[in-house]
Amino acid sequence: MIQKHPLMNEYWEDKRAKAHLIQVPAYILASMSTGLHAFGSTRCYEDILHENKWLRVNATQEWHDLYQLETIADLKALPRLLCKGNLESPGSSPMSSTLGS
């Protein structure tokens, strides 16, 4: 298909996630260690229309960060906060970053 559609067009646009349709709180991870998911993760964050979204940006590979104690604590804290109606992020703002940690 890349030979048939080498540039972004309707065919490829149809394959993109429809993040603007997400209506539930979203906790999005983005790794700057590789280009594999960083662009899509940050674009998804921007495309979600509501404010109940959090972007975690890290400097390590996604799987390494996912199992760090700080990350696990954030992931555990978020559902508790949401169930209490507190839409603050585990950090101090809806957009938290651990880049460089």
TrEMBL record:
Domain of life: Eukaryota
InterPro entries: AB_hydrolase_fold
Name of the protein this chain belongs to: Uncharacterized protein
Taxonomic placement: Eukaryota, Fungi, Dikarya, Ascomycota, Pezizomycotina
